[in-house]
């Protein structure tokens, strides 16, 4: 095998085609609602980490568990990157009629792109938070929130941070 590119060989690089059973696929006996997605800081230096918080409410009649998923999408990159990349997930139990605020850290390493070595690039990225992948078609209602943030500074190798 001489072609080691991942394009067309893994769900991360399928282009517009969605996998049959994406990460987080499944049904629940209750319903959840996401709100108040906050990224801090909205403009961060190239080597900094991003703090993320989101509120998850169980709006159904039964206690339930939700797998909260965070994905990143590069708006423009100097090299091919996935449509979006899973950067965090957490299974959370939420009693019926209750809500919980979740906090995550997206570290600089998770924004690195491969270009003959791991590099960090400035630019605009979109973070998605929800119970499924962005744009996923499901029978059960689920929402995905999104927010953009900007990375500033000069591109540099990841080990230079």
UniProtKB/TrEMBL annotation:
Pfam families: Fn3-like. Its EC number is 3.2.1.21. The keyword Hydrolase applies. It comes from the Eukaryota. This is beta-glucosidase. Gene3D superfamilies: Glycoside hydrolase family 3 C-terminal domain, Immunoglobulins. Residues 66-133 form the Fibronectin type III-like domain. Keywords: Hydrolase. InterPro entries: Cellulose_deg_GH3 (IPR050288), Fn3-like (IPR026891), Glyco_hydro_3_C_sf (IPR036881), Ig-like_fold (IPR013783). It comes from Rostratula benghalensis (greater painted-snipe).
